[in-house]
């Protein structure tokens, strides 16, 4: 890959207008990667309870599928921490991104060939898990590198980037499940190959993502290159432009870092270790009890490692990291509720929703479950970003802590609306898809108050040498959220039984969503109450 550095970081960050031009290349690369990821994510639970052939025979139960969904997604996001660590220390963000995308393509190819046997399914998923870990945190970090410290346009940039994520999620989330269920392109996809095509499509668009990055990376200048410079084999100190505001005020924009030369064998060791881990990851993903051991271990170890890193920084920088940890803890709670979308809400959509929107449009309810949130994000993410900019100019923009708290309040409103679907039955046990869509509309504003702002705040609060690690920790928090989401979803399923009537299932699931609404509201109020303390820890960071 090209390593053109004619464009300096200062040139990139001194852009005019609302968005840097380099953002668009990253936007489209991420968009197609998210098509791949959300396409496969959206089919997991449904596929496991209807088509996956277990070694013991039959398909998964609903509660087991929820646990399996949570375990699989937990590993996906947990590996973003590992991917961020390798990117920071060895590969650089660009090579990490490319390697991750390549692994995701292999995983999709395995699933496209024959996804039905349990062994094939989890082998393909394992490649995707590790690939996402290398891809996801690093492209987000490169977006942060496009902005100078204190640039008020950063949140708007991340909001636009987040809309790109959701364009991919919309297209992949609806297309893959609809193709797999035989409800899209039925005129030329043979019935026996619908799932093969669904998984193959994910791999095809991942290839488009990598090609897009290859042809646009030359505009990134020094952003994302490996920390190992192959020049004269010596260790040396160099001046680099700092883009995240972690250096002392008397030296704004410059930081001295030490780089090592001629360490390319480290890079090859990472690739070899990755491939060697595939069988291990496959075993751990396939058995949810292994996920328990992993999650009980990785979190404490990560905190120990962060504590060690904090000893190398000033107390002022450490306070910012403590603030980042508070955001991370609350994000775990948020994602535990939000990610019911891929678990319990997927089953709820398949069994308890009609297929008519606005009284006229026929849509697959699982496709709507996968895509409704993305539609609203695409529409409103740029608008919300511009609103933050307008409020900042008038000095009335709420701080990041308040935005997080508002995110939980919207989340509570959305889950309360999921609960109210029980009052809008169109048949016995079959609820209105319209009300379900309204719930996602409300939840979307909660997501827009938290997720793109969360990506941005991790880059603002992190020292430059910990950028990838802290972005990885942000996604590791998502891993714990996914893990808890699976447990919550399994609990909703086991509150009833597999043989319950549709009416009883409707009551069981909506009762659970009512409880989640209450807990989300409590979390939002707590966060707003403690906002002054968190603001002090953040210091000058807004």
Biggest β-sheet: strands ordered side by side in the sheet: 1-2
CATH architecture of the largest domain: Up-down Bundle
Mean pLDDT: 84
The largest pleated sheet is described as: 2 strands, antiparallel
Look at the structure and name the CATH superfamily of the largest domain: MFS general substrate transporter like domains
Membrane topology: Multi-pass membrane protein
GO biological process, one term: peptide transport
Keywords: Cell membrane, Membrane, Peptide transport, Protein transport, Transmembrane, Transmembrane helix, Transport
Protein name: Amino acid transporter
Q: Would you kindly provide a brief summary of this structure?
A:
This protein is mostly helical and 542 residues long. Helix content is 71%, strand content 4%.
Describe this structure in words.
Helices cover 71% and strands 4% of the residues. With 542 residues, it is mostly helical. The chain has 16 helices and 6 strands. Helix 12 (400-420) packs antiparallel against helix 13 (433-461). It folds into 2 domains: 8-231 and 263-286, Growth Hormone, Chain: A, CATH 1.20.1250; 288-338 and 353-475 and 499-541, MFS general substrate transporter like domains (Growth Hormone, Chain: A, Up-down Bundle), CATH 1.20.1250.20. The strands form 3 sheets. It has a two-stranded antiparallel ribbon. It has a two-stranded antiparallel ribbon with strand order 3-4. It has a two-stranded antiparallel sheet with strand order 5-6. It is globular, with a radius of gyration of 23 Å.
Secondary structure elements and pairings:
Elements (H helix, E strand, L loop, with lengths): L8 H5 L8 H29 L11 H52 L4 H28 L8 H27 L13 H23 L19 E6 L12 E6 L4 H23 L1 H23 L4 H24 L5 H9 L3 E2 L3 E2 L2 H29 L6 H21 L4 E3 L2 E2 L1 H29 L5 H28 L7 H28 L1 H8 L4
Antiparallel strand pairs: 1-2, 3-4, 5-6
């Amino acid at each position: 890959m090209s390593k053109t550095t004619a464009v300096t970081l200062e040139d990139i960050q001194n852009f005019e207008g609302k968005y840097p031009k380099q953002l668009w290349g990253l936007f489209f690369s991420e968009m197609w990667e998210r098509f791949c990821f959300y396409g496969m994510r959206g089919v997991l639970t449904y596929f496991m309870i209807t088509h996956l052939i277990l070694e013991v025979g039959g398909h998964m139960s609903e509660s087991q599928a929820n646990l399996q969904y949570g375990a699989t997604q937990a590993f996906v996001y947990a590996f973003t921490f590992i991917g961020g660590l390798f990117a920071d220390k060895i590969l650089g963000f660009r090579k990490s991104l490319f390697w991750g995308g390549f692994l995701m393509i292999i995983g999709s190819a395995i699933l496209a060939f024959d996804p039905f046997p349990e062994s094939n399914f989890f082998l393909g998923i394992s490649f995707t898990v590790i690939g996402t870990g290398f891809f996801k945190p690093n492209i987000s970090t490169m977006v942060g590198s496009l902005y100078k410290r204190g640039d008020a346009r950063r949140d708007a940039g991340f909001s636009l980037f987040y809309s790109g994520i959701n364009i991919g999620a919309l297209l992949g989330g609806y297309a893959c499940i609809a193709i797999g269920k035989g409800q899209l392109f039925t005129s030329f996809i043979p019935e026996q190959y619908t799932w093969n095509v669904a998984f193959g499509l994910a791999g095809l668009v991942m290839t488009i993502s990598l090609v897009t990055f290859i042809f646009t990376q030359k505009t990134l200048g020094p952003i994302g290159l490996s920390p190992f410079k192959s020049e004269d084999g010596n260790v040396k100190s160099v001046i680099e432009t700092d883009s995240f505001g972690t250096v002392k005020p008397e030296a704004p924009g410059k930081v001295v870092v030490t780089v090592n030369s001629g360490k390319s064998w480290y890079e090859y060791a990472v690739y070899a270790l990755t491939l060697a881990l595939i069988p291990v990851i496959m075993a751990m993903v396939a058995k949810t009890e292994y996920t328990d051991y992993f999650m009980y271990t990785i979190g404490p170890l990560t905190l120990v490692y962060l504590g060690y890193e904090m000893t190398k920084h000033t107390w002022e920088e450490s306070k910012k990291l403590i603030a980042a940890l508070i955001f991370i803890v609350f994000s775990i709670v948020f994602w535990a509720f939000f990610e019911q979308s891929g678990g319990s809400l997927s089953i709820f959509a398949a069994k308890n929703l009609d297929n008519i929107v606005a009284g006229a449009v026929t849509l697959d309810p699982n496709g709507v479950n996968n895509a409704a949130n993305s539609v609203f994000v695409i529409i409103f993410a740029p608008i919300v970003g511009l609103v933050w900019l307008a409020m900042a100019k008038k000095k009335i923009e709420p701080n990041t802590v308040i935005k997080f708290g508002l995110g939980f309040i919207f989340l509570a409103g959305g889950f309360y609306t999921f609960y109210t679907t029980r009052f809008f039955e169109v048949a016995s046990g079959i609820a209105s898809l319209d009300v379900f869509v309204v719930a996602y509309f409300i939840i979307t504003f909660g997501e827009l108050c938290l997720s793109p702002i969360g990506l941005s705040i991790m880059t603002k609060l992190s020292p430059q040498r910990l950028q990838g690690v802290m972005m990885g920790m942000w996604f590791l928090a998502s891993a714990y959220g996914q893990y808890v989401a699976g447990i919550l979803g399994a609990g909703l399923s086991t509150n009833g039984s597999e043989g319950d009537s549709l009416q009883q299932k409707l009551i069981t699931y909506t009762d659970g969503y009512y409880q989640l609404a209450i807990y989300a509201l409590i979390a939002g109020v707590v966060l707003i109450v403690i906002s002054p303390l968190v603001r002090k820890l953040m210091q000058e960071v807004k």
